[in-house]
Amino acid sequence: MDLRRISEETPDALLGYPDPSSDRPETGTFAIHLASWASDIAATLHEKYGETVDLEVGAIRFPGRDFDAGPLRTLPETPADSLGLSVEAITPLSVRSGRSAISRVRVVNHSQEKKVLSTNGQLQSAVVDDAGAVVGRYVGAQNLPFVGFAVEAGSGTEVPVLVGTDSVVPRLGYAVPPGPWHLVVLLDVDGERTASAPVPLTVTP
To answer: Which residues is 136 bridged to in the sheet?
Structure first.
């Protein structure tokens, strides 16, 4: 199979796959997970191997664009401002279509009590449209260490946030298309998950 060549030439395209260094006979169906920008690679694999490969591009199956939304389109019901928290962009937020980026935002605590944000080293987020509907997330694997960020009362703290553009709306394609969107940042405070008000996000080609 072409996985060895793909892993060498475009290693970021492969998110999950059989061991490309194995020379064992290949039988049955192989599950391959590709980045959402790699639909052309998925098309090549599908054309060559047909139903012997089970392809997923970003969050969506290839080529039929079947999609199990699960929790990916769901945001916490509790608004962050109900806990006295808000999120501000430090610099204009942007990310390439089909890619992910680590940006930094400022979490401001307007309450009278210190808040501690529970993270795995970075906040999670969702790309939303003008109506607030989720259109994109980061769907790859992540490390799961606990990292807390304290936000003192009446103060703000810079925190990294993971911004992903894997589409969760099949009609948009496998990646959130370029254009103006918004980002909702998810905050976990004392076990309560909340969602910030949307902040502007630009998805670039």
So the answer is: 127, 167
